[in-house]
Specification:
Length: 233
Amino acid sequence: MKMKLLHLPVIALAALSVATHADAAKAKKKIVKKPEAAKAAAPEPKIVQADLVSGSPWVKICGKNPQGKGQLCMTERAFGLANQPPIMIVAVYQVQGEKTAVLNLNLPTGLLLRPGYRISIDSGAAEPGGFDYCLPNGCFSRGNLPAPALVKLTKSKELHVSVQRMDGKIVTFNAPTDGFGKALEGPATDPKVLAAAQKKEDDMRAALMKKAEQERQQLEAKPGATPAPAAKK
């Protein structure tokens, strides 16, 4: 799959030889200092594996293609940690009848825009990708999905997206892709199923916010406790 390629600057260090001269009355001797021991290499960033789950199936929404003929369909699924709201959304846009597609990723905030991310399907080679922009609700990326990569994705089991956080740690999101091929090639999702999936997500968010508020109140009730900030809605 073709993604934007971003490069990090590489800094090279050169060793210098320092020459000193003896007394003018003596023969000139060239003294070369021994090269300094190489500085200890910076520790590699810690890699954290985040196995994501999805509480809802893939959904497919179709409509008129604003840029040409035919219908444009979006096949989408949201992923998150167990019993948590979604933190990553994978959406594939495809004009019906075409073999290529566009892959959209919605990832959480707090990531380094450079070096971007790396993405792979199952155990395949990782490809580099770059973010288009970030908003308060997440970072977004759009990239071309060639026909071979699309076919591979329809038969895959997992999609892996590695990103680097601002604290230097690398997080690899492992998202299950089972059912994607069937959803992509099948009809648009029933609006009732979409409404049920949205309600389930809203209920989960409400339950988590309620739990967070209860924990905050319990913390404030303890003697000498510092009031905790209320959960943002």
